[in-house]
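Our preliminary data section would be incomplete without showing what the modeling component actually yields. Below, a chain of 115 amino acids is followed by its predicted structure, encoded as tokens that our downstream tools consume directly.
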Amino acid sequence: MGTGTRLFALVLALAWVVVAAVTGAALLEPGPWEGVATFVGDLGHPWRAQFNSDLAIHALLAGAWIAWRHRWSGVGIACGAAAVLLGAVFTLAYVLVALLRADGDVEQVLLGKRD
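Predicted structure:
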């Protein structure tokens, strides 16, 4: 694995730690249902609606990519659903594991095994 790929893996790991810490704090303090209420309530503000819509569609794209990468298998659909529901906490870890398993081969990371 090259230096650039190792740096990318480090950035993924650090980003995961940050998102996991912020998520953990949100789960402990206001709780998960407050997150749902905030997301839905924010749709009344134009910029928050834009941000939340963009984020939700981005999560759906990530989930669809993961499911497609696994050829729509049961595992792929489950991982895709996890990406949508858990966001970056799942997706960052998923991409890091895929990167390490592919030994830095970006084509294999993006496409999965396509034999």
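The chain has one domain: 3-111. The chain has a mean pLDDT of 93. Preliminary results of this kind motivate Aim 1 of the renewal.
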